[in-house]
What does this fold into?
Amino acid sequence: MRYTKVLTKSRACENIKLSNSTLTVIKVSPMNPHHLQYADLRLLRVFMTVCRCGGLAAAQDELNISTSTISVHVSNLEKRLGMRLCHRGRGGFVLTEEGRTVLDASERLLSHVDDFAVQLLDIHGDKGGELTVGVIDNSLTNPGFSVDDVIRRYRAQYTGVTLSIHVQPPDQLANAIAEGELDVALGFFPRKVANLSYERLASTRMELYCGPGHPLFDADQNAITLEEVALHDHAQRGYVPVSGMPKPHQSFRYVARAFNIEGLAHLVLSGAYLAFLPVHYAENLLGTDSVRSILPNTLGYESRYDIAWRRSDISYPVLAGFIQTVRESVAKKGA
It folds into this structure.
C-alpha cells in the first residue's frame, strides 16, 4: 500500500481518506487570525448558512451540497478554530456559547468583506453595463421585502447600469438564470438548480382562502374541521408538486391549478375552489371582504423568499453590487 502524507506543524485531529490503495493523511492546521485564507471565509459562510437554516439538513438546498459534506466543512472549521461550535445529531442543531460568539463575529467580518468588494468597484468606477433581474409576481405588497427599495438604492449607486425587470412565475425564474436569460432573480424557488447560488431574504405567510359563494365563506370559522376542508375542491400552484407541499395539504383534492398567484386568486374568487395565497396579497389587493382564511393556525405556513444568481458570475461588478444592495435593503427592513 502506498502512503501519501500532507503534513503540517499542527497537532490538530487528522482526516483520513482511503481510495485506490492510497492513504491520504491530512491535518487541518489551526486558524491564525492574522493570516485568514479564502478557504476560511468559505467555511465561515457555510457555518453561517447552517445557523441561519437551523441545521445541516435544512442547509442542503441553499448550499447545494450534501449533509455529509456540510458536516465535514463544519468539522474543519472547528478544527481551524480549535473549539466546538455546535452540537449536531439526534438532539438537533444547537450552538455552543463559542459558536454564538463566532457566528456574531463572522457576520461582522463577512459584511466588511462584501463592503470592501463593492468599494473596490467604486474606486475602479466600474458601474456601467446591463443587469437583467427576474422578480416573482405578487411582490408589490410583500411586507418582508421591498423590490422597490432595492431598485431605488441600486439606481442611486449604479446610475450607468441599464436595468431590465422581468416578472415571471417561480418555476421559470431559476431556469432563466441557468440559461442566461436572467442575471439574478428574487422570489420563491420550488426546486434548486445546480450551479446557482441561493441566499435567503425573507419569508411570506401563506394561508388557505375561499371566495364569496363557497360553502365555507359564511360558515362558522370555529366549527370548520380539517376533514371538512379536505372534502372540497382545491386549486394548487402548478409549479409545486403535491409531494413538495406540507403534509397536511397533500391529502386535499386538487382539481385545478394556476402558475401564478393572480391565476389562483381568480379561482378562489370564483367561489368554486380553495387555494393558498400570500396573506399580504389577499389582504391588500383582494380585501378581507372578498376572501376568507380557513384554519390559518392549522394550515398556514411560511414560504421562503430568496435571491439567486449563477455562481460563475459573482465577480461581475454590476451583479455583485446588486446582491450587496439587496442585502442592505433586507438588513434595513429587519432592523
In short: Residues 97-124 form the longest helix (28 residues).
